[in-house]
């Protein structure tokens, strides 16, 4: 390679590969908006799953074929959401009664699971004598839950039209904050959506979905309604807006006692959801749902031909195009099953929320199919105060009772998984091959396909070495922006894959850590794996930092597993260079990318050694501690059903691994005791092939230890 040293003013280096860091600088059109590259790739994989589903549904022509599909969907939903808890005693109690004009309110608390308390209010029309229809009102993402005026408006109109209405607090809202801090009177993790996703990540690590808790609360609320003398158990409906639309869709799909359901402002299609706002909080994400052939339409089709009303608005952030496409498919199912009149989609010109027109359509729907005829016109009614509708003495179940929460239940359910894992580790000869097999499956790691030629983007000359800019083809249509630091002196050298969670440029400056390695005779490749550096997902307003993690698990993949495959691609790229010794390539991972490189090294024997700095100690600590602070891109949904990060460490032996300042679930430096508890079996197995440092250690010295004979 010819290098020209031109005397002139100092060069300002732009080490971005996909897009110029200078807004006035050059941009490659093909690689524009690199922050969305990961999201587009995840969307493509999920849509591949959905395409298989669409092909299957498109071939259904007869009622018998649709009934077979319904059975399959019910079994799949049980697989995704289960195992369902036992029907333990509800232990309902009335904590107060309000007498209002035309109705009364009983403030109710019951246990959907032992010591897992659900708060709600039962609205009963005045003069109600014979058993009549009842509606379970589930609530969207509001801190006040059913006490908020827009929800009260629907509740009060329904009760004044003669319906018994049971409104309950969802998890993380109203009086059911899951991470309540009595000192501040607020959630320690934030809004309802953050509460849902914080607990949801903990559930996903154990291979389960937090949606199960929302659905089970609804099922047990219906159990309670059937005990009331005012309620006809054969005339029960469910409705809700937004997150309540989610819950009503789920409950209507799973509980066959629901005669009529009217989800509002949720139903669209997963493909349109991905192409617009992306996956929402955790209960709206089914674990492996699209991979197993589940879309929004299935939640309605599985009910056919029971009465179902899809309530939508044209400017909702839940795509109206997806809603219309779903409605067309669902209508076909109802038509083939003989009752097209029992399904309808209504829409109004509005954003995300209730409208008078849609509400009146909902009232009329329930009046028709729950057999309570009357006037469907919406009327104003005086709202109750939040204080009037407070159910518990303290305003929170966590302080009013010795209440379980999702975290405590999930931790208990994770215990046998962790015990089984510990037992399996007693025979590492049998355990470790199983770990690699299961880690491959659960992480969605795929061996890189045949290498595609990389794209050279130019270089900068420094004293004694050059910094090359490469676009290395990644999985699918993605590009891995990579810097290669190569000594000028001819010859072949060992190489290092150097990945930093803060991006490839973090240690790339002249005089930095990478330069030190180059001057010691290494070729260093510093890539930005998807989701990091140049390819960091730019969180738009309303988007959550856990969205890529949620998006990946829908198709049975993980960002960590994809990153692991891309790290191997970078290794292959190095092996094809004429200045690299292909059998002498190691890896350094710093920060959040550590688990990805750990997966890569475990899967790929040609990575000769590994140094992990500031990497996550294990996954189980996230499940075992109520509060955590981790980058969800480093996690693998379902991992704890078969392995944890220490198991991957053990599988790398006899290759050498050095770990430095491992991080806990709270991003704190792990203590010697914490390390011994988590890595004790690894240390015993690896012996002198594993080096553990609890304090900062010179990186070059660690590399020299790794490559020593």
UniProtKB/TrEMBL annotation:
Domain Acetyl xylan esterase: 103-264
Signal peptide positions on this chain: none
InterPro entries: AB_hydrolase_fold (IPR029058), AXE1_dom (IPR008391), FrsA_esterase (IPR050261)
Domain of life: Bacteria
Record's protein name: Xylan esterase
Native source organism of the sequence: Rhodopirellula bahusiensis
